[in-house]
Amino acid sequence: MAEDGIQDLVTGAQARFDFAGKMGVGQGRPGQRLDGAIPGLPASVPPVRLPVPDLPAPGWPQPQREYTRPDYSERFRCISSACEDTCCQGWGVPIDQGTFEKYRSHELLKPHIGTLIQLNANGPTTSDYARMPLTVNGTCGFLDPQKLCEIHKTLGPGMLSVTCSTYPRAVSTHAEVVEKALNLSCPEAARLTLLMPDLLGDGLGQARGAGRYRTVIEAGNRILRREEARLAVREFALIMLRDRRYPVWQRLYLLGNLTRRLQSMAEQAGCGTAAAWCEANPAAVSHLLADSAATAASGRLQPVMDRMEAKPGEQLVLVIDLVRQRVTEPPIPGRFLECVQEFEAGLGCSSGKGEAAILGAYAESYERYYKPFTDRHPHLIENYMLNHVFKNNYPFGRATTVKTASEPNAEDEHLALCAHVAMVQTLLIGVAGRHQEAFATGHAVKLVSSLAKTVEHSRKFQEQIAGFLAERKLNNAQGIALLTMPPAPSRESWRDSAGHTGGGRLGSAMEA
Ligand code: SF4
Fold it and tell me: Model pTM?
């Protein structure tokens, strides 16, 4: 089968995948049904409808499917004294309840309870029961002058907390398999993750064409086992996020359609969460994925996305506001503040330039420095997203032992991914403007790792993201496009989008 054709996949005809085919909405190709279904799709792949019959009786023969696991974390090695950062610099390390109890009863450590080890003031949870507050130097109080951990050195690795003994690995269990993704706040973990051209070792990043969706569509004919349903959703996300026929923002736009449908089906069915709905309705999941795969393979939504326009003025204001929201609450790692300064220098945000000039610099930096860089390293942002998927149990959310006001929400999880990509992309465009031709992977690693330490280690900020987007009515498809679509090449469109007045909204992110 030709990798860049869909004929084998859905039509059996000679129609090549016409990615820029500009099918008029409502016109369709000869033979294409106007309900959006793809001609030639097996009749057994109907549109998703509820209710769907549940699993057959146990013992029903089920095909075994292989699911992608994040094996890349096995290659991680701490570089210790050669590291440009230190794990416990600028991060109040969380201590789990079990470790806290050990510390409370240990002769050498109990005198430090209440000072170097404090109960989590925001509500102790099993995994985040206490914190190591930062010293005036912004480090953990148990770090010695040689940047070695006193607890490890004196009492051995058995006395380390779960976080300290596993970091930067992010450990979780899926279908009874333990997985380890990486926290990109560690510069070495970020380097390893972002710079590996084939992170998942399956060559899919380089593969082109719609053949990648074939297994998903074929699986639409089969009933997934209960425990497979969530992994199948994740597998589809891993395929979609690496479909280089679509720019990154369009992959996120398309994936947003899936998470929206998942969430709304969960709510219609009264399941509470998308994860619960998937487990209860594996057949519907496989049909939904087949439908989403057919949409992605056919390019059916391409005309809709082609008509959307970038709004870089609004995008820049949003990202700066989001960053401001975080930097008003110290501690903020110094390496991240350096990146923000580079971003501002690259765009002229803090030099009194008017909005039109700042937006001109933004578009120019994108076109001249950022885009050529990502063309050379297309896996960089992809790998960032893939690791996010594994680390955050996307789109279902991480399991938490604390009772929160709201249940995990697949739409919010997707918006969080989009917000993180928007921050990385926008800040990198500014940093690229600062370094111009010298902009390189080292700058990207520094930005991603310091941003991760700043925003991903703050549970409060992670919880604020959904509210931030909802308040601005961006919790929808237009919001995803606004956040993630890069600046338009045409200067006129962004000039109009922001007006010509100077100053104001695009000032320094550190002015708060
Ligand atoms: S941040 Fe990463 S590489 Fe640096 S010391 Fe910590 S674990 Fe090692």
Answer: 0.82
